[in-house]
Write a structure and sequence with these properties.
Length: about 625
């Protein structure tokens, strides 16, 4: 850890465990901290004393008369140590420690707090079950790696605040107790004591409030906003609550928002990303349709150089009956190039084929281009013209191979994307030590809901449709694009965002296409639609997820590792025993009677910017 500047009390310590250097030689000092490690050499006992800032080695000489009780030399016992700073001999200097040139010759030792047997070893990287770690999270947080992750999180948030303020944004807090609204997940509800039968909801995001701030005349707003969603956990999503950099800007078009946010995020990742490369200049803009085709995902990982191509036309009507028949039945064929693989053994191709089958695909067919010829089990079914067209579409060269995925419109993008990732990983093609950003833009405004056989919003119903009212009245709804955008880094979606639909007439029409009446809009979104009738400026924003950004910067695979007190996979706090039952008196005070039933699915609109998009 870096040396800290702190105000210290002389009662417990004159310095932190990271402050002492050569220039402190012969000074009498007092340190307080936990025993990180003890090494008993008989006449000499070495104690590594640890606090929040670092570690200092302390030495007890048996001849000095320092009193040692039975409980004083256990790991994680809290000590106060007084002594003189002495220089280490040349052969005992520890260059890995910031305080490694000195040690404390102990004159007095006081036990400030003892410890019971430890359920977690603090001074090792030993893995422990999640249940143990979260039950004793206060101990887990003492461990160096996770402790440093929380410090990193604090520094990232402080840097964000500085960068946002410098960019002209004002930090404003929005309510935590608000009304329930149809958004992308289930609400957490809070019963009202003063208003029987009525409930507050914890905000899934400050979406409506930040838009109302724009109507109120605040030009640039931001907030490190807590968001609450009753949804399941994933590796990159914490159940219950998460934090986002929520922001909104007035009098802007889409490009204004993108170019404002890019230097803030790029600067943040350069500041905390160590030696990793960060996308320079404007981040690439990739349309949604292009992203789904070329990358098989709307969260493209640009560290992977492989691009997917649609080669349905090459196989349509061909002699390769499996693909040709599937195409006649509405399927598509996608190609993923595998450079410099013509000399790979048969086992390489079989391994990928088996991988695909294990994931429910039919397999991965392939063609190998070697010495001017197309080889492999599929090549013999394609004539020269089709082979030429295939090479033209995919840009493969002699020495390369192509893998093929064939499936219906519902599975083709996902399966091609998974295959692209697997092939790149097998060939070690994914760029290392880099943060590669991009914007995914031009999302469809609507999609067809196969289950309910109706047009529905595909992303955010409060986005401005491209083309405005004219597009809504003259175009096929499924052809209408919206001013919606996601920011993606290394294949992880950090945020969704949009230019807002700030005109009531366009909003009514947009909802009408999705089957909502004007009364529905007035009832569900009365606060916002009413405000838009009083001079609403054009505005837009987004909300990059704090948790996901820190997870990337800390190079952690699980978001739990960068949150101080996370819930477990079942949305439980094992340390505080939450959720818990409450007394009948508490329930009576808020006019609630518990009746156990099977939970019902909450079907709702998708309307918020956040690090957890619902597309």
């Amino acid at each position: 850890m870096s040396q800290a500047i702190v105000s210290l009390s002389s009662i417990y310590r004159t310095h932190t465990c990271d402050q002492l250097r050569k220039n402190h030689e012969n000074q009498q000092v007092t340190l307080s901290g936990w025993i990180h490690r003890v090494r008993d050499h008989g006449q000499l006992i070495f104690i590594d004393l640890r606090d929040h800032y670092g570690i200092t080695q302390c030495v007890i000489n048996s001849g000095t008369g320092v009193h040692l009780s039975d409980d004083s030399l256990k790991n994680e016992v809290l000590l106060q140590i007084e002594g003189k700073v002495v220089l280490r001999t040349a052969d005992t200097i520890n260059s890995k420690m910031s305080t490694g040139d000195v040690e404390i010759s102990v004159d007095k030792l006081t036990v400030l707090s003892t410890t019971e047997p430890l359920p977690i070893n603090i001074n090792s990287d030993q893995e422990f079950p999640e249940e143990t770690r979260l039950t004793y999270r206060f101990l887990d947080l003492r461990r160096e790696k996770i402790h440093n992750n929380i410090i990193l999180r604090s520094k990232v948030i402080q840097s964000i605040r500085n960068r946002m303020t410098s960019a002209g944004f004002m930090e404003i807090q929005t309510p935590i107790l608000t009304s329930s609204s149809p958004e992308g997940a289930r609400d957490y509800l809070v019963p009202s004591r003063l208003h029987p039968g009525h409930f507050y909801a914890l905000p899934q995001a400050p979406q409506q409030f930040k838009q109302l701030l724009m109507v109120a005349g605040f030009d640039r707003y931001f907030q490190i906003a807590p968001c609450f969603r009753d949804e399941d956990a994933r590796a990159d999503r914490s159940p219950g609550e998460f934090y986002q950099l929520d922001l909104e800007m007035s009098f802007v078009e889409q490009e204004d928002v993108l170019t404002t946010i890019e230097p803030i995020l790029a600067g943040l990742f350069k500041e905390f990303g160590g030696t990793k490369k960060v996308t320079e200049g404007n981040f690439p803009r990739i349309t949604y349709r292009e992203s789904m085709l070329k990358y098989g995902s709307d969260k493209p990982d640009l560290r992977n150089p492989l691009l997917i191509s649609d080669v349905t036309s090459v196989f349509k009507g061909s002699d390769f009956g499996i693909f040709a028949k599937a195409i006649d039945n509405g399927s598509f064929v996608r190609a993923i190039p595998a450079p410099d693989t013509s000399t790979k053994p048969r086992s390489f191709f079989d391994k990928l084929n088996n991988w695909a089958r294990e994931r429910g695909m039919a397999g991965l067919g392939y063609i190998i281009f070697e010495n001017g010829e197309a080889k492999g089990p599929i090549a013999k079914f394609l004539n020269e013209d089709r082979i030429t067209e295939l090479k033209k579409i995919t840009h493969v060269q002699d020495g390369d191979s192509i893998f093929f995925v064939c499936n219906n419109k519902y599975a083709i993008d996902k399966n091609a994307g998974l295959s692209r990732t697997q092939i790149a990983e097998e060939l070690d093609l994914v760029e290392k030590d880099a943060f590669r950003f991009c914007w995914v833009v031009d999302y469809p405004m609507y999609e067809f809901d196969e289950k309910n056989k109706k047009i529905d919003f595909s992303h955010n119903p409060f986005s401005m449709p491209q083309g405005g009212m004219d597009a809504l009245t003259s175009k096929d709804p499924l052809d209408i694009l919206a001013y919606q955008y996601d920011i993606v880094c290394n294949g992880i979606e950090l945020s969704s965002g949009a230019i807002r639909n700030h005109k009531p007439d366009i909003m009514y029409k947009a909802f009408e296409i999705a089957g909502y009446t004007q009364d529905d809009v007035n009832t569900r979104f009365s606060g916002m639609i009413n405000a838009f009738k009083f001079g609403a400026p054009p505005h837009g924003g987004c909300a990059p997820g704090i948790d996901r950004m820190v997870m990337l910067l800390a190079d952690e695979p699980n978001i739990r590792e960068i949150i101080a007190f996370p819930l477990n996979q079942q949305a439980q706090d094992l340390m505080m025993k939450a959720p818990s039952t409450v007394s009948d008196e508490q329930l009576k005070a808020v006019h609630i009677q518990v009746k156990m039933e099977q939970p019902q699915e909450n079907v709702s609109l998708k309307m918020t910017d956040s690090s957890v998009s619902k597309k």
